[in-house]
Amino acid sequence: MRRRNCVWAAGLLWLSTPACATDAAVALLADGANPATTDAMLRNLATLARTCDWARRYDVIVFHEGGAAGDALRPRLAALRRRTGLRLRARDVSDVFAAPAPAFVDRPRRRGQRTFGLGYRRMCRFWFSGVFELEDVRNLTYLLRLDTDSELRCRADSRDPFEVMARRRAIYGYVAVKMDHQRVARNLTAFGAAYARRVPQIQDAFFRFPPNAHKNCPAPMFYTNFEIMDVSWFVQPRAVALARAVDATGQIFASRWGDAPLRWIQLALFASRTDLVCFGGEYDYVHGGRQDRCDLSFNLTARGCPIRESLRAARLRGAAARVAIQREDQWCYPVCSQQPARH
Ligand SMILES: *[C@@H]1O[C@H](CO)[C@@H](O)[C@H](O)[C@H]1NC(C)=O
Ligand SMILES: *[C@@H]1O[C@H](CO)[C@@H](O)[C@H](O)[C@H]1NC(C)=O
Ligand SMILES: *[C@@H]1O[C@H](CO)[C@@H](O)[C@H](O)[C@H]1NC(C)=O
User: Fold this and answer.
1) Is residue 266 part of a domain?
2) Per the domain annotation, does 85 fall within a domain?
3) How confident is the model at residue 32 (pLDDT cuts 50, 70, 90)?
4) Whose CA is nearest to atom 4 of ligand 3?
5) Lowest CB count within 10 Å: 27, 35, 210, 313, which one?
6) How many domains does the chain have?
């Protein structure tokens, strides 16, 4: 209801209303265990404050775990708040963060290989669903999530993202669409496809789940280091039911299903194309490079499909390769591919 009133206000008083969605917030999750990450986060917040006028109109919430790291963070946030005028506050999320981690063994990082520890997997669950379990978050209209290494700079013509969301009545804002590697998306597309068969199809879906997805399909994802969510949509029973079903698989912990491809699935199941707004290009946004791929279409055959990889590994050539590729056409392309999306 609040949002509807807000849209009315925006319609009638667009020029004089500084921000209708005043109960929106920017949110980040501090990584207490890593001082370099915290330094980067504080620098990026200072940049946000310096270049985006709108940032001072909303709360900026820094979620953190308890203990010594949390205690060390609070005075630094207070100092940044004084210096920048950002409405910064720290929020201990230990309870939600320490969700059960079934069947997960935290292995030490191996040389030259990126591994994802328990903290990373908890982060995935937190952003996918845990954050909406927080009562103060449930009271917000919109939440703009940034990562500690998200560099968001406004240009002179960059708009207030919450005003854009409200005016468009959007439920999700993103900057880029990508593909997650099959190694960390094991059976995720199959899970989404199976779930899609059990729920009513929504109108004007932006993604059609392949009917018989192989467990080694890569997974499309919204690049969630920048995302804006209409909170009321994400606390709806159907979104919560999906989150519980994901929890029940245990795969966030066992396979490191990420919040990014999970977000894609959630929106693909329940949102229409017109519910999405792409902010790619609206800001100077950097996260491991510039991010602005708005296009929602995919060919899931790309790289991830297993036959082509095993073909290379086995150095198959000639007739043997042709047979294998034929097999790929038969089961890899159809199982991993999506019909090209309509625009
Ligand atoms: C959330 O909103 C309700 C109703 O307005 C209020 O009673 C409650 O105190 C709020 N909770 C938090 C944590 O802000
Ligand atoms: C993959 O997901 C499907 C659908 O949820 C499930 O039926 C199947 O058992 C899963 N396969 C593996 C290997 O986990
Ligand atoms: C997907 O593949 C088709 C056919 O090869 C091609 O025309 C199309 O541009 C591809 N789309 C994307 C997003 O790569």
Assistant:
1) yes
2) yes
3) confident
4) 299
5) 313
6) 1
Within-domain flag for 313:
no
302 lines ligand 3 (CB under 6 A): no
232: pLDDT confidence band, cut at 50, 70 and 90? very high
pLDDT above 60: residue 184:
yes
CATH number of the domain to which 268 belongs: 3.90.550.10
- pLDDT value of residue 110: 60
Provide the domain limits for residue 231: 12-300
Ligand number nearest CA of 295 is: 3
| Cα 139 to averaged position of ligand 1 atoms, centre (Å) | 6
Query: Residues 43-101: pLDDT tens digits?
Result: 999 999 999 999 999 999 999 998 898 999 999 999 999 999 999 999 999 988 877 66
CA 115, distance to chain mean position in Å, is 19
